Amino acid sequence: MTETxxxxxxxxxxxxxxxxxxxxxxPSYSEMNLLSRAExxxxxxxxxxxxxxxxxxxxxxxxxxxxxxxxxxxxxHAAQTGLPTARLGTLEQWQSRWLAARSExxxxxxxxxxxxxxxxxxxAERRTSRTVAYLVRRAAEGGSEPAYRLAIVHALAGExxxxxxxxxxxxxxxxxxxxxxxxxxxxxxxxADLAFGYGQAYERxxxxxxxxxxxxxxxxxDHGHPGAAERLRALRSVPFGKLLPAPVRxxxxxxPAPVRxxxxxxxxx
Length: 269
Prior knowledge:
Oligomer: single chain
Helix content: 55-70%
Distance between the termini: 26 Å
Number of helices: 11
Structural class: mainly alpha
Number of strands: 0
């Protein structure tokens, strides 16, 4: 059976967990289970669960609580056995890796994967997962703007916890616009306007960035942004990749965007 790109990303993340365990002194499954019973560890790690995950017997990634527990247990075993813990990675770094791996998985956890503008489903999903994974990688490098955009993307996808997480990261890194997204009810109108602005910036940059523009337009259009819906119609394709002309009528934004966003640099295909 040919492994899918998502499967390769899943396997790569599991390989990283194996490396973490080795760097922590290769604790046995029973030792890890015992350490996971501490009150501050989010989730107990049964030996059978650890075996299934590390031997790739599960089709989907483990949930974040399990990954966080795995990382904490490895840190504690390393400390107890006199091994350095700095190279094991922080919880924040591991959550960035987990989010990147999760964004490549098929199913409902992929943000905004399909649209109604004649984009083939496999191409729409490729566009979505690639854009989100790229933002996660950039955020893991310490940038505030990628974390801010992830807060916006997750807010528009209805994933409030994820949006709040990235917003807190952006606030910590002193992004001036991130504070409104740290609450339980992110400002969706503002998020849609910002997504529309990102789409415009990418569309103006070059035709090679129209895939990314569609991604942001779709997020905004799903929340009733008329300008984003119009641009999606203008950029509709039959087949995908060949632009068709469409009339564009300027639409007032429901709220003015605070700044004109500039596109982030994107890696080549």
